[in-house]
Design goal:
InterPro entries: AAA+_ATPase (IPR003593), ABC_transporter-like_ATP-bd (IPR003439), ABC_transporter-like_CS (IPR017871), BCAA_Transport_ATP-bd_LivF (IPR052156), P-loop_NTPase (IPR027417). Pfam families: ABC_tran. This is ATP-binding cassette domain-containing protein. One of its GO terms (biological process) is L-amino acid transport. With 240 residues, the chain is α/β, with parallel strands linked by helices. It is built from ten helices and ten strands. The strands form two sheets. The protein has a six-stranded mixed beta sheet, sandwiched between helices. A four-stranded antiparallel beta sheet has the order 2-1-4-5, with helices on one face. The protein binds adenosine-5'-triphosphate (ATP).
């Protein structure tokens, strides 16, 4: 018997007025998997994450998380359900300190000592952020801000961590660091759904990958198989 997936999406449609952002997307994510969604600008990737996060009202189809339907009721409901979204663009609260930013990620929790321990562990992994815990987060480098927003999302103790283009605008070495962090998060048992324009990076990190273009899934499968698939590029660029 196959157990049901953590996240299941059937025939999802998202529209903005007359623009169709998603047209019948079907995908699933099993517990413990790292799944990536790759595609060019405007493929519909952010709309997909927005719908899963309950921020975007679908025009049709269904999204089921841990056996329950997701309806758009705002981000807090989503976080309480166990879904954390790291949006594109590293949204730290620039005027707040590093520590305050992290603490905000844990507002849905009441196990304050455990939260403190998790923050301390994060500072062990990224000593620079520990040293700068009382500094304004807006003064951190882009890479440091990315680590911070990922850590902040994790402090909500999600079952599913979703990231929108975590490598965007980062140097390759910094991107390496971000993906090392994702590997550690995965090892802790968190399921990950990552959206990337950077297909090689996504294929390397994910167990399975969906290629999205023009609001439709053009190709899907094990990342290793897709990396070797001669149709991959055509699918990515919407030529098939
Ligand atoms: P990007 O990498 O540029 O964010 P994406 O793959 O995430 O691209 P979406 O942002 O989901 O794609 O956009 C899908 C389509 O929907 C595009 O045609 C985009 O212009 C359109 N779109 C997205 N958000 C809105 C909005 N709020 N109003 C109108 N159209 C939108």
């Amino acid at each position: 018997a196959t157990s049901s997936p953590l996240l299941a999406i059937e025939d999802l449609f998202v529209r903005y007025g007359r623009i169709a952002a998603l047209s019948g997307v079907r995908l699933h994510v099993d517990e413990g998997e790292v799944v990536s969604i790759v595609g060019p600008n405007g493929a519909g990737k952010s709309s997909l994450l927005g719908a899963i996060a309950g921020l975007v009202q679908p025009a049709g189809g269904s999204i089921t998380f841990a056996g329950e339907p997701i309806t758009p009721r705002g981000l807090e409901r989503t976080v309480r359900r166990g879904i954390a979204l790291v949006p594109e663009g590293r949204h730290v609260f620039g005027g707040l300190s590093v520590l305050e930013n992290l603490t905000l990620g844990a507002t849905v929790r009441s196990d304050h000592n455990q939260v403190k321990a998790e923050i301390a562990r994060f500072f062990d992994i990224f000593p620079i952020l520990g040293e700068r815990r009382n500094e304004a987060a807006g003064r951190l480098s882009g890479g440091e801000q990315q680590m911070l927003v990922i850590a902040r999302a994790l402090l909500a103790k999600p079952r599913l961590l979703m990231l929108d283009e975590p490598s965007l605008g980062l140097a390759p070495k910094v991107t390496d660091r971000v993906y090392e962090l994702l590997a550690e998060i995965r090892a802790q048992g968190v399921t990950i759904l990552v959206v990337e324009q950077n297909a090689p990076r996504a294929l390397k990190a994910a167990d399975r990958t969906y290629v999205l273009n023009g609001g439709r899934v053009r190709l899907a499968g094990a990342s290793a198989a897709l990396a070797a698939d001669p149709d991959f590029e055509a699918a990515y660029f919407g030529l098939r």
